[in-house]
């Protein structure tokens, strides 16, 4: 099944925007910090977990509406961008600014935008039961809304994953779990922590549908997630999608990555999904270089404006935090 051109453009723009956003964040995050252990508050406080290379997982959002819920783990930027979270307010939140989504109190691992029903948690697996709650609410209200929980393959070994799947299957909730298998749970390889080859195989234990997407393929992710979303909307219950994706960067910025082979990332970058989509659009959809460059220029402008907005915004005043706490 071919992907409609308008959807393909959306996929390309979303992935290009996510990549450029995180390329900028990788540089901005190191401002004011020493290279060793990222000591110093700098422009952006706290830890930083980037999803560079994992953009295809967020392609499922091409099938979602504003009324559908998305929960994300501690590596959330590509999901947030794909779901339509306000980019300026998101960046301000990461910078700890007053104009942020939560007035700078949540930071990069706790983004929350009720306008598009998006939230994320820094705790492994925490978003899974939250998404199930949203799916239950949709069913009780008689809505065709869908809830999607993104998680890493390490979180699929947590109790929240299995307990939620059991309930979701029992109640036929419109829930989809998207497992991003980037091969490592922090520094532990999947082969040393997980008994099954891929977590979609676990779907059969709960009577669910399981889908597997190989080689970080955004087109296959689009097709598979379309089926999963249609099933959820029509009352056929939950699904698990596992995508074989690739984390180009460490678990966190500053990660020495001693657990990786030297040539691992260069080899992965040769199969970069953004370059593959770009080639597809030119070879099979007849788009020329200038059209793609215009799309890239547009997303870069949006990202640059978001960073400028965050830099120019004010930090919250201490007394304002107390007012929010007690009012």
Q: What key phrases describe this protein's structure?
A:
about 325 residues, alpha/beta, Rossmann fold, two-stranded antiparallel ribbon, 10 helices, THDP-binding, PDH_E1_Alpha_Subunit, thiamine pyrophosphate, oxidoreductase
Description:
It is a single chain. By secondary structure, the chain is an alpha/beta fold. 41% of the residues lie in helices and 11% in strands. It is built from 10 helices and 9 strands. Strand 6 and strand 7 form a beta hairpin. The model has no long low-confidence stretch (mean pLDDT 94). It comes from Siminovitchia sediminis. Its cofactor is thiamine diphosphate. This is Thiamine pyrophosphate-dependent dehydrogenase E1 component subunit alpha.
Low-confidence region ranges = none
The CATH topology turns out to be Rossmann fold
Strand order of the largest sheet: 2-3-1-4-5-9-8
Topology as H/E string?
A: HEHHEEHEHEEEEHEHHHH
**What summary fits the major beta sheet?**
7 strands, mixed
Mean pLDDT: 94
**What's the gyration radius in Å?**
19 Å
Instruction: Please identify which CATH superfamily we are dealing with.
Output: Thiamin diphosphate (ThDP)-binding fold, Pyr/PP domains
Q: Assess the beta-strand content as a share of residues.
A: 5-15%
User: In one word, what is the shape?
Assistant: globular
- Tell me the distance between the termini: 53 Å
Oligomer: single chain
Instruction: Decide which structural class fits the backbone.
Output: alpha/beta
Q: Count all strands and give the number.
A: 9
Keywords: Oxidoreductase, Thiamine pyrophosphate
Protein name: Thiamine pyrophosphate-dependent dehydrogenase E1 component subunit alpha
Organism: Siminovitchia sediminis
Cofactor: thiamine diphosphate
